[in-house]
Amino acid sequence: MSFGELRDIGVSYDKKNLILEDLNLDIHKGELLSLLGPSGCGKTTTLRVLAGLIETVKGTFTLDGQDMTHVPVHKRDFGMVFQSYALFPHLSVFENIAFGLKLRKVEVPSVTKQVQKIVDICGIKGLEKRFPKQLSGGQRQRVALARALVIEPKLLLLDEPLSNLDAQLRVQMRTSIKRIQQELGISTVFVTHDQEECFSISDRVAIMQKGKIEQCDNPETIYSNPACEMIARFVGFKNFFSLDQKDLLGITLPAKIQQAKLVCIRPEDIGFSPSGTLRGTIEVRTYLGNSYQYEVNTPAGMLTVSSNKTPACEVGESVSMAFPADALVFLER
Amino acid sequence: MKTTRYFFAVGPYLLLSIACLLLPLVFTILPSFFIPSFSLTYYTDFFQDSFSRGIFFRSLRLSLITTLICIFIGLPTSYYISLRPQRRRQIIVSLIMFPLLTDAVVRGFAWISILGKNGMINQFLMNLGIIEDPLKLLYTDFAIVVGSVYLFLPVMISTLTSVMEGIGDDVVEAAYSLGASPRVTFFKVIVPLSFSGLLVAGVLVFSGTISAYTTPTLLGGNQNMMLASLLYQQSNTLSNWTTSAVIAFIMILVSLGVMKLLNYLASRIDKRGVDHV
Amino acid sequence: MYKHRFVTIIAFITFAFIFLPLILIIVTSFNSADTISLPLDGFSLQWFGKVFKSRSLVQSFKNSLALALVASFIGIFLGLLSSIALVKKPGKVSNALLSIFLSPSLIPGIVIGYVLFHFLVVKLQIPLLFALVLGHLLVVMPYCVRIICASLKDIDESLEEAARTLGCPPVKAFFLVVLPNLRPAILSSFMLSFINSFNNIPVSMYLKGPGMNTLPYAMMNHIEYNYDPTVSALSVMLMGMTLVFMFIMEKSMNSQSLKNETVRSE
Ligand SMILES: Nc1ncnc2c1ncn2[C@@H]1O[C@H](COP(=O)(O)OP(=O)(O)O)[C@@H](O)[C@H]1O
Ligand SMILES: [Mg+2]
């Protein structure tokens, strides 16, 4: 049994259309789990279900063996960082961070100490007396994070925390977030639509589409074993074939694959070799710096192949290609 | 939010609106259409009577004149203000808003002291020997118009100023670079671009003037009544309920009608503006 | 930058037109002559003293003050309640209600005064004082609802949600997080409500009972019977009050939103 479990969650805003449909998600203790998916696929909604900010129409949410489904937001003890940061404009940085502690009736000296500690960790020392309006985007981000962390939440929820920052700051902040998360060992759910950001810092990634989790695994597994065509395209597979074409390609279905609809391979895994099983003609060549990418016209369709073979092949040249068995990925969807 | 809570929260004001606005309006105005079956007789009577018809058209005329004067004075003044540096602009606008927040009686009183028989203007002209007998300025249509312009000019100026602030310097500079003189720029660029604001402010001035009571009463006296003073006279002094209802309904119709019409025009013009950009 | 001579001349004439009458009142209120005239005779504060000696003016000032305070406080409280409902539950019903709540500012004041009088006082025989308060509530309602609604819509919804995730129960979250951020809106709707109620003539005129005169109407009567600088002195005091209000408003909010509010106490 996992630390946190969403089971068969259904959410509807208008009582007709389900935005989330039978959603299942496991959260492991101390991990940084990312929700990745295109805009509008239901990431924020899932996060708000975890936070308790929306009612579900069905399903349960348990955390640490406790049923949280009907626990109101303010009794959940989760920390949440909103996309807009939602810093209280009428309170100073210190008061913003101390807000949750004061509600928990923590003694004043202890409040000061805990705020100091989190301020240090989040790297916003010296800003305590300022008001949110007087902070830069990155500083606001850190204050929002500190405010959520200071209550020692059981779960930290981050909704696209980096989307309002510029590119350079984004890279810097994501490292900070990862460092702080590791330091405090806090279980975290991180919502993003940026694939690179997500793969770089996550322990596990849940890929969402249209209100469903398509695959939830560690980044390496997703990278090498995507669960469906959408994810495969997402992580860099460019050549897709239906299984009817397997004889044309000269490949065989491994025994352990029971049923598959598609087979795919990355451009860099296709090899040019005289003993190749498929022949074709090069139509376009582009230079990528350390390799060339070729568009090859074959009986199986147009393929994308990248190769650093020298001398490079010429447009119009006829080549034969090999498909190494261990580079092939079979997809059921 | 639960439905019961929702209605609990909007309840007091909803009740107030129904009990103190809707019901009174219906209860008061409906009978003016029935004698006892549906009829417009009271309304045709109102317009056949030369006295009340005169007041109706005077109200329309004076409101229109007031609006036009506000526009002609307001346009250049607002343009002048909009060209000032930001800080000074804010101060001027605040100062202009000041009379608006001052009691209408105070403002009317000021004009009585200026236009009255022994008022400033007459004193001044008589001291200079230009006239021998005081001019009759107070208790005239002229006085009503002056007072109404005084009342609503700040509305016109503040609306136009904020519209003109929105017109970019680049547009003006483009006009200059194309060889337009300041005068041409003002009339061909600034005025057309301020047109929708002009309409909005025009509505406020017009409907404000036609429904005003204090200023026309103080400055127009009993001879030069407007609709509002007529309504008060009919209802309070004469307890003439049906005529009062007729006047009330006409006043609502005119001010809402003008508002709807000009707002519609303004939105049309706004759309055209967006399309062209 | 080109100079616009024409524009500048008109602007200065306009400024003179707007400010000279008020300056005239201020100057003559300190004049010792007992008519409103120039040139000045000498400095005197007697007219200010006269204001305080006039029982009808002092009494009606107190009445107006009390009325405006009561109307503004109740108006804002109810305005807050309804604005929360209207903003929290957007939709057709809320839009319709909003236009209903704003409608008193579209209907001529004298018509409101008359129909209230006719219905509440003549027909239902409601006590005048009660009718007067209801009438003034109607006068302030649009200001309270419009300003507070607009400000509430501007406040990021996730502010309240953030408070709740930090352990704040819903009602407390409203008081700790939303209300403090509504302060400028509440202050400015209070000012506008107060000024509009205090300066209102048409509604008060119909609903004032015996011994319940309001200041603007008392001033109108005073002008009719005794034309002397007492009213100037009183006007100066009222202008002082307005000035204080404007100063507070300017401090608490940007003048932009003040500018967009048209005062229709006429
Ligand atoms: N308050 C709401 N009312 C109605 N529909 C909503 C609301 N919030 C989100 N949705 C819909 O739910 C879907 C998922 O939204 P969301 O969870 O915000 O997506 P994401 O965060 O992945 O971009 C979208 O199609 C959106 O239109
Ligand atoms: Mg989202």
Architecture blueprint of SSEs:
The complex is a heterotrimer of chains A (333), B (277) and C (266).
Chain A: E1 4-12, E2 18-27, E3 32-36, H1 43-51, E4 58-63, E5 66-67, E6 78-81, H2 93-103, H3 108-122, H4 137-149, E7 155-159, H5 167-184, E8 188-192, H6 195-201, E9 204-209, E10 212-217, H7 219-224, H8 229-234, E11 239-242, H9 246-249, E12 262-265, E13 271-272, E14 278-287, E15 292-298, E16 301-307, E17 318-322, E18 329-331
Parallel strand pairs in A: 3-8, 3-9, 6-7, 7-8
Antiparallel strand pairs in A: 1-2, 1-4, 4-5, 9-10, 11-12, 12-18, 13-17, 14-15, 14-17, 15-16
Chain B: H1 3-29, H2 41-48, H3 50-82, H4 86-101, H5 104-115, H6 120-127, H7 141-165, H8 169-177, H9 182-193, H10 195-211, H11 214-220, H12 227-237, H13 241-276
Helix pairs in contact in B: 3-7, 3-10, 4-7, 5-7, 5-11, 7-10, 7-11, 8-9, 10-13, 12-13
Chain C: H1 5-29, H2 46-53, H3 55-88, H4 92-102, H5 109-123, H6 128-154, H7 157-165, H8 170-199, H9 202-207, H10 215-225, H11 230-252, H12 255-259
Helix pairs in contact in C: 1-11, 2-11, 3-6, 3-8, 3-10, 5-6, 6-8, 7-8, 8-11
Bound molecules: adenosine-5'-diphosphate and magnesium ion.
Structure notes:
- The complex is a heterotrimer of chains A (333), B (277) and C (266).
- Chain A has 333 residues and is an alpha+beta fold.
- Chain A has 9 helices and 18 strands.
- Chain A is 27% helix and 30% strand.
- In chain A, a hairpin with a 2-residue loop joins β9 and β10 (212-217).
- Chain A starts with a strand and ends with a strand.
- Chain B is mainly α and 277 residues long.
- Chain B starts with a helix and ends with a helix.
- Chain B has 13 helices and no strands.
- Chain C has 266 residues and is mostly helical.
- Chain C has a single domain (2-265), classed as MetI-like fold, CATH 1.10.3720.
- Helix content of chain C is 77%, strand content 0%.
- Chain C contains 12 helices and no strands.
- Chain C has helices at 5-29, 46-53, 55-88, 92-102, 109-123, 128-154, 157-165, 170-199, 202-207, 215-225, 230-252, 255-259.
- The longest helix of chain C has 34 residues, at 55-88.
- The radius of gyration of chain C is 22 Å and the shape is globular.
- The two termini of chain C are 41 Å apart.
- In chain C, 49% of the residues are buried.
- The chains are: A alpha+beta (333), B mainly alpha (277), C mainly alpha (266).
- Chains B and C meet through α1, α3, α4, α5 and α7 of B and α1, α3, α4, α5 and α6 of C.
- The structure holds adenosine-5'-diphosphate (ADP) and magnesium ion.
